[in-house]
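tool_log.txt
---
The assistant was asked to compare two proteins side by side. It first ran the structure predictor on the initial sequence, then on the second. Raw inputs and outputs are pasted verbatim so the downstream comparison step can read them without reformatting.
(1)
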Amino acid sequence: MITFNGQTYALNDPLVAAALAGAGLLLLLFILIIVTMRAAGRSAKMTEPMLFQMQNLGSRVQSLSDGQNQLAGGLHHVSEAQATAQAKMLQLMEQRLADVTRNMTETLQGTSTRTARSLGDLQQRLETIDKAQTNIEKLSGDVLSLQDILSNKQTRGAFGEIQLNDIVHKALPPDAYTLQATLSNGKRADCLIHLPNPPGPIVIDSKFPLEAYEALRRATNNSEAIEAQRMLKIAVRSHIKAISEKYILDGETADGALMFLPSEAVYAELHANFPELVRDGFTAKVWIVSPTTCMATLNTMRAILKDARMREQAGTIRATLKQLHRDVELVVERVSKLDTHFTQARGDIDGILTAAERAGKRAGRLDNFDFEEIAPETNGPSVVPLTKPGA
């Protein structure tokens, strides 16, 4: 590369090569002049040929100078063309860069908007997850509280009674049952249903053999399972016996009672794996019910109570129907009298219409001065009375 007048030229450029060749020739010319001048001192005879050669060399040098000037002009033109091309290239690159910058800005703005929207959605989902997590923690606390409640016999019994009260309250009218009813033997029943005889009032007592059931569920080997089954049988049989002895009283209650289990799982376990306990309940006339079957049983009792009350009110219903029949007869009599009055009024209206028609015809004759056609009536004028004869 060669730098000339602030411009950089490549060595393989033809113009540069030509300029270099001219410069070499010029250098060669100077060398020849020096050699010639030295030779002039040696031989005077050779002066004229040397001068002639020098003239030729001078013309050649002038030609080379003209070529160099042309080369300089060409190089200047090339430099200007290159500067113009560079300016156009820079302008095009600036325009392309502006377009790219604008596109990148729009893309970044769109990406920023989508990112902000996605972050907003993510924030909402995180808030939903936080709420769900809060609910789960609350539910976990409730479950732990329920476990704490069920771990105590007294609170577990209260839990069963509350569940039984809620089911009875939804299934039966308030006057059809008594909660915590005291019997003649001094025993207090969780609920006494006032059914008519037969079968008579029936007791529902809440029992919850949770310890034995939980032991059965936690059993990890055969020996633990057998021991848990034995405990469950003992607990259920003791409950059946207690209900049979306390709440089945001759002449006071029905000849059976209900044992309410406030757990569908325990109820299903008994019917699936301990059918002998269910048969023991049948033998003792103690029927085991779960929340679902208790609701069905109470709905059946509701139908029995409704039928009994309808039988009790049968006499009142018959008396009311008799009074209703008499009222209907009175209505028929009054309608008949009203029809008679309407018939008489219809006859009076027909007579008035006939007299009005006759009066209209006479008025028409008078208007036409047709007196000859008017003849006295032999039977006297026909007058329509406005009131009934004898009134």
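(2)
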Amino acid sequence: MRTPNVGCRTFLKLLETHTPAQVFSESTAALTALGLKPTSIQAIKNPDWAAVDYDLEWLSHPNNQVIHLLDPLYPELLKEISDPPPLLFIRGHAELLSLPQLAMVGSRNPSSLGKETAFSFAQTLSHCGFVITSGLALGIDAASHKGALHAQGYTIAVAGTGLDRVYPANHKELALEIVATGAMISEFPPGTTAKANHFPRRNRIISGLSQGLLVVEAAKQSGSLITARMALEQNREVFAIPGSIHNPLARGCNALIREGAKLVETTEDILEELHQYIQQDTKNVLTVTQSMLDLEQQTLLNLVMFSPTSVDNLVENTGLSVEAISSTLLILELQGYLEATAGGCYTRIK
């Protein structure tokens, strides 16, 4: 892992004919014959023991471990991809890696409705027995992890850095919450900093671990679309939540649907495809809780669109006074059914 110019494919190719111990005992000529570059051979003959000691020191801490491709804890689904990571560094509960997982990805700068949708879907799918897997990024990733945690379910964060650091840094508290009941994993050894090319590599693990991938909000040029295409190449189910043709954050999802991703409006659309992985009766979980509203509140809520709706429009459709409508709107906002938007309008969010 610490040898320069030895990536996943070279590592896996070497493992076809050698144990790691045999690689280190080979002659320079034999290593050259295996196709290794001079810099790699030099590193094998003179290992960077300081880096290895750093790894061992990290592994000495509770909750930290590393598993290899032949370890019983290594997830079978991940072995199926074309370039599975030979080693996985783990903080937290490694046994979760083999449970049914639903990956959730999307924009780092989502709308408030997008964050609410991700949180809500993750919460319900957690109740249904899925581990929610994402990348700890800002926006949809974070909302997905938080939804699973709120449901007291399990969530896995796949990092693009070594696990001795958290990226982005303001997610340190979220990372601690995830590790307490779930897991953080990385193919990168401790000390590895964030680099742009690490995140596409991370994304293939997110999709590779999961039975399906849900894209919540994504612009047309988005890393989430790269993850979705990786998922398709890995023969995973791909789901996308559609959006308005006027919303740039919906264009990526709409494009995926045109290309064959399953259009998702409710969690039931996902469960139809992945029902064999459901671990408990979800009937009560999937029941809409709007029955808790009284008739007047329910009637008004049904008139608020998932796009900005003005109070004047509601007055016209109900015949109620502005005061009565404003009072009910405030109650619905406090209960999380809608939110106030610019221009004195309201948008329904669930």
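---
observation on (2): The chain is about 45% helix and 15% strand. Confidence is low (pLDDT under 50) at residues 280-291.
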